[in-house]
């Protein structure tokens, strides 16, 4: 039973290259029969990371069917045909399309490790986890269980549902909370029986998605040397414009407000939101109400949350409009004291004796505008 090509973060995938250090792995890829395919897929994974979705060669809508379907059409999996002994000998032979799929994932990890860009790493983990979620949704039961095991999520099948110990639930559910799924992912809303609770298949897969995201992110960046980066720099160069363009776009989309004047607390929440991190409810409220107060409009604020793992445009828009007074009350942003209670205060010198983040923003903005006027 081979599943590494669909879930390249698993040990089943890693057994393909576990004997190689980074430079050997690069050479293995360079000498591989599927070299072009590996590079192409690595680039697709990066583009998917930037644009929002990693394309799936197994999907009928995949734009380059010939290239991949021929390989997919092969009768055997390839890896299955070879014994552990064979793989132990550091075979440089390409084994199949599936092998190339695994190596493209490994190559992207090397590329991101050379770039040392935490924003991209987080986004990559997020997109790969989403990609895996789609695969898991159509997966056989035994593989679903296997992937869960690999992630350290022990489950037991019962009457079409899954039993899970509450510690595993809490570990990942807290990361899912803070989104529209709040209610479902609170332990208090679950029936516990001797420490176990029941999940539906779709809930289990959503939980595994979070576990996958965390696993991929925690393993990066790898400790790669200059020689590795020199070998793969050409790919980075080919992707650089795309990466830069994307980053600029994200940071431009937020309108004309003065980012450099944000107080430390809001600046931190703002960055986290742009990077697609889940913010707890109180932090989301603080960020949204603050940005509305300084003149950002609903569309601009919705776009900030666009990278959240569970972004739902309609719900986000509703929440932002609600804070903006669409249903009667326009909410004001929390004071420094409240920010402190929720653990969002990052008081520093620039805050002075301010009691409200808006005071800090106005003060910093005035001084930034003054500096700009003076130097123009
Ligand atoms: S004191 Fe206020 S403005 Fe300063 S970091 Fe804390 S919450 Fe932000």
Q: Overview of this structure, please?
A:
The protein has 376 residues and is mainly alpha-helical. The chain has three domains: 1-116, no CATH class; 118-220, no CATH class; 256-375, no CATH class. It is 57% helix and 3% strand. It contains 17 helices and three strands. It has a three-stranded antiparallel β-sheet. Strand 1 and strand 2 form a beta hairpin. Helix 7 (118-137) runs antiparallel to helix 10. The longest helix has 27 residues, at 226-252. Bound molecules: iron/sulfur cluster. The site of iron/sulfur cluster (SF4) has 12 residues, from helix 12, helix 16 and helix 17.
Q: What ligand molecules are bound, each kind once?
A: iron/sulfur cluster
Number of strands: 3
Structural class: mainly alpha
| Low-pLDDT segments | 73-82, 251-255
Main sheet makeup? 3 strands, antiparallel
Mean pLDDT: 82
Question: What's the helical proportion of residues?
Answer: 55-70%
What is the number of independent domains? Answer: 3
SSE succession: HHHHHHHHEEHEHHHHHHHH
What value does the Rg take, in angstroms? 24 Å
Give the count of helical stretches.
17
């Amino acid at each position: 039973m081979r599943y590494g090509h669909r879930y390249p973060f698993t040990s089943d995938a890693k057994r393909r290259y576990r004997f190689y250090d980074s430079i050997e792995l690069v050479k293995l890829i360079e000498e591989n029969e599927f070299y072009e395919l590996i590079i192409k897929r690595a680039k697709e994974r990066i583009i998917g990371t930037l644009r929002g979705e990693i394309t799936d060669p197994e999907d009928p809508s995949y734009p380059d069917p010939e290239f991949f379907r021929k390989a997919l059409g092969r009768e055997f999996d390839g890896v299955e045909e070879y014994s552990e002994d064979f793989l132990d000998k550091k075979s440089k032979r390409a084994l199949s399309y599936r092998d190339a799929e695994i190596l493209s994932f490994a190559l992207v990890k090397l590329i991101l490790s050379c770039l040392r860009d935490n924003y991209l790493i987080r986004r990559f983990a997020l997109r790969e986890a989403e990609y895996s979620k789609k695969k898991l949704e159509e997966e056989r039961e035994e593989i679903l269980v296997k992937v869960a095991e690999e992630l350290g999520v022990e489950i037991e099948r019962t009457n079409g549902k899954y039993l899970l110990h509450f510690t595993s639930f809490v570990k990942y559910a807290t990361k899912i909370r803070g989104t529209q799924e709040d209610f479902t992912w609170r332990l208090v809303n679950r029936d516990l029986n001797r420490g176990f609770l029941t999940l539906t298949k779709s809930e289990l897969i959503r939980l595994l998605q979070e576990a996958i995201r965390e696993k991929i992110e925690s393993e990066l960046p790898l400790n790669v040397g200059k020689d590795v980066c020199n070998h793969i720099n050409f790919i980075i160069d080919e992707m650089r414009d795309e990466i830069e363009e994307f980053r600029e776009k994200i940071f431009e989309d937020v309108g004309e407000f003065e980012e450099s004047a944000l107080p430390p607390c809001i600046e931190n929440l703002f960055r986290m939101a742009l990077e697609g991190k889940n913010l707890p409810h109180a932090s989301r409220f603080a960020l949204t109400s603050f940005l509305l107060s300084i003149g950002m409009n609903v569309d601009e604020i919705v776009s900030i949350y666009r990278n959240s793992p569970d972004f739902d445009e309609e719900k986000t828009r509703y929440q932002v409009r609600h804070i903006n007074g669409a249903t009667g009350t326009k909410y004001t942003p929390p004071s420094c004291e409240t920010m402190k209670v929720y653990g969002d205060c990052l008081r520093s010198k620039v805050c002075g004796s301010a009691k409200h983040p808006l005071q800090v923003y106005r003060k910093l903005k005035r001084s930034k505008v003054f500096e700009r006027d003076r130097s123009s």
